[in-house]
Amino acid sequence: MRHRPGLHRDLPHDRQKTKPARPMRHRDFDLDALEVFVTVAELGNMTRAAGQLGLTQSAVSHVVRQLETAFATQLFDRSIRPMALTAAGHRLWHWSKRILNDARQLPAVIGGKDAPFVPELRLGCIDTLAAPFMPRLLQQLRDGVPSFSIAAGLSRQLREQFMARRLDVIFTNESFDDMDQVDSARLVTEPFVLLVPRNAPEVADEAGLRALSQALPLIRNTADSSLGRMVDQHLRRLGLEIPRSFAFDAVDTMMAMVAEEMGWSLLPPTALVKSRQHLGRLRVLPFPAASFRRSIFVIARKGELGALPARIHKVGRGILTQGYFTELFISWPWLKPMIGR
Q1: Which fold has domain 193-291?
Q2: What is the pLDDT of residues 231-242, one digit of tens each?
Q3: Phi/psi of residue 150, each to 5°?
Q4: Which of 67, 195, 197, 231 has the fewest beta carbons closer than 10 A?
Q5: What's the rounded Cα separation, in Å, for the pair 282 and 28?
Q6: Which residue, 294, 297, 289, 290, is CA-closest to 271?
Q7: Dihedral (CA of 107, 113, 115, 119) sign
Q8: How far is residue 315's CA from residue 141's CA, in Å, rounded to a whole number?
Q9: Residue 199: how many CB atoms within 10 A of its CB?
Q10: Neighbour-count burial for 300-317, b at 16+ CB within 10 Å, e otherwise
């Protein structure tokens, strides 16, 4: 049989020179057998197929009989000339063509640096960005990726899943600068803003922030979350040690608490977009002290997904710069110059 890229050859060129292939078990077949079958099916003659494949007629006939034994059905109607496929044979011909075509693409798909095909993309996203960002992202990626699985949660959880290879790409506020075999691309930088009940007084400076912290409890992220740690550290730098009253791992609940006048909070604008249904019942103010910001990064392993991580970053940037924050900018125009790369 002539060698064709992507197919392993172990069929005998002559049954007298080489031991016959081992008997097939049910559905236990190789690519060579499928190619022999497809060639016979398309030429309608075992002798002509043998000539094209560089085999003896007896070797071709042997392969066809093995397939019929493996599938426990007749694949060719030999009572007519030229012989023709049975219904079962036609089904096997259809699927064999697909299997052989996929097999020929394997070297490029598996080993190629810029492999265009990813059968399933496993994405992780911090909770504050997950919606509506992720649906918009998937809508633009689905033409090149047939299947997705999505995990949303805390940055620590996403890091653990990424390191365990349960996720391929993550959106997180950790840069992974401590890892050499990781590509990290900044997606957006955003400020923390002050969320207060609608009837709360203005908070124009650090003194106003201290007065607010004495009048109302701080609605916090949980201490094990990245946002929670960032807020606690920044408030300590300002000399604000605020007692713990409420801590949540979901920004939607935090904003609902502020809307119900249960306290005040500090969150980035992506969190406000995610839980925008509460915005009409609270006020958003600039943080009145030293600048307080965070960045979100796209993280992927070096060289494993070809050009796909760069495309994900480009699509993600497009989403965030083309109308994602429009509702916030209309209500609080001072926010617009504070969000960037």
Answers
A1: D-Maltodextrin-Binding Protein; domain 2 (3.40.190)
A2: 999 999 999 989
A3: -125, 135
A4: 197
A5: 65
A6: 294
A7: positive
A8: 8
A9: 7
A10: beeebbeebbeebbebbb
